Amino acid sequence: MLRISDAQVHRALAERMRFYHELGIYDFYRREPSAVAVGEYAAEAPTARDSIIQPEMREEMPARNPAAAVRPVSDDNIFEVLSPKPEYGVADPAAALKIIREDLGDCIRCKLHKQGRKQIVFGVGNPRAELMFVGEGPGADEDAQGEPFVGRAGQLLNNMIKAMGLQREQVYIANIVNCRPPGNRTPERDECETCSPFLMRQIAVIKPKVVVALGAVAAKNLLAINAPMSELRGRWYDFRPAGARSNDLSSDSPSWNGVRLAVTYHPAFLLRDPRQKGEAWKDLQMVMKYLGIEPPNKAAE
Ligand code: URA
Predict the structure, then answer these.
(1) CB of 123 sitting under 6 A from ligand 1
(2) Could you give the C-alpha distances from 210 to 26, 99, 117, 263, in angstroms and in order?
(3) Among 122, 134, 141, 142, which is best to mutate for testing ligand 1, by the most ligand atoms less than 8 A from CB?
(4) Which residue's C-alpha comes closest to atom 7 of ligand 1?
(5) Residue of 218, 203, 189, 173 lying closest to 112 (CA atoms)
(6) 9 CB neighbour count, 10 Å cutoff
(7) Is residue 267 within 6 Å of ligand 1 at its C-beta?
(8) Mutation choice for ligand 1 from 145, 266, 270, 272, CB with most ligand atoms inside 8 A
């Protein structure tokens, strides 16, 4: 008799939970354990897989709202994402962020910990920021100093923030991965997926009005969209971090429905191709308009 493996059951359950998650259902209650043990499921019996949306089908389906995208959560992470977190119910976002940092610990969850990282580079900035920037991963300077965007790309990001009429301390800055990939290579999928619950938790605690994804790696990891930068930029996305609840007790606004997400060029790319700075400025102006920020020279008039 054909048997369904634990891995298949795990995958089916993950898919089912992802489906509920996409519907906005986050809380689950446990029934008494079934009389049928996992290993006893027969292939001919109806299974969870029969009634769930398979990933390959979902790819074909038109998005319910083309302007909206919620980051898909990997099968391995869906249980992690949906489980209660120690910061839930902590009203002070600074305290909640500290709890997330402590939970991350001296992380050895992915292979980056043994590939030469000096230290973990956690997000920094205003725990109540309206605006958050998300980059790719720490470079050599960030790895040495333990803070995101402190090298050359960071200097340019600081200038971009200043040009918006803001100070670095007013915003929150984080990366998709918290550890430096060796030789500044692009972080690999498993590394991004391992780190992403911690980023999602930071976003869920801060509840910024806007997240700006810096570059394609950040954009593609935050959104369920694999598209060139030319298509990703210049528009808004509705975004709710995986695992965040609209009725989260730590929220100042109980009806919090997520954040708006915009995509712009990574500052390191702009250093290589400064001709694109004008395009990046257009993206930032879109953000400023939404946040009601006047550019400094206009504000001074
Ligand atoms: N590039 C990034 O994506 N993040 C940093 O923190 C620094 C450079």
Answers:
(1) no
(2) 23, 23, 30, 10
(3) 142
(4) 149
(5) 189
(6) 16
(7) no
(8) 266
User: Which amino acid would we find at residue 71?
Assistant: R
pTM (predicted TM-score): 0.78
- Ligand 1 contacts CB of residue 136 (under 6 A): yes
Paired strand residues for 68: 238
The total domain count for the chain is 1
Helix (H) / strand (E) containing 69? none
Is residue 1 included in any domain, yes or no? no
Structural domain that includes position 30? 6-300
CATH number at residue 276: 3.40.470.10
Ligand 1 contact, 148 CB (< 6 A): yes
Q: Which of 43, 63, 44, 61 is nearest to 53 (CA)?
A: 61
- Which one-letter amino acid corresponds to residue 93? P
Nearest to 199 by CA among 143, 137, 141, 249: 137
Length of the chain: 301
Q: What is the pLDDT of residues 19-56, one digit of tens each?
A: 666 565 555 555 544 333 333 333 333 333 333 323 22
pLDDT digits (tens, 9 = 90+) for 94-136: 999 999 999 999 999 999 999 999 999 999 999 999 999 999 9
Residue 103 CA, chain-centre distance (Å), reads: 17
**Tokens representing 98?**
């500290």
Tokens 């609209």 sit on residue:
246
Contacts with 301 (C-beta within 8 Å, 6 or more apart), sequence order: none
